[in-house]
Amino acid sequence: MTYIDPPSPRLWTDRIRWFDERLRKAANDSPLYVGGQTEAVLTELRRVFGVGAWVTAVILAQTAIDSEVSERVDQAVGDGLYLNAVRFGRDYVWLRERRNAYLHNEGPVPAVTVQELAMEPARLEKEARRAIELMADALAGRA
Question: C-alpha distances in angstroms, 44 versus 2, 41, 64, 68, 111?
Answer without folding.
Answer: 22, 5, 10, 15, 22
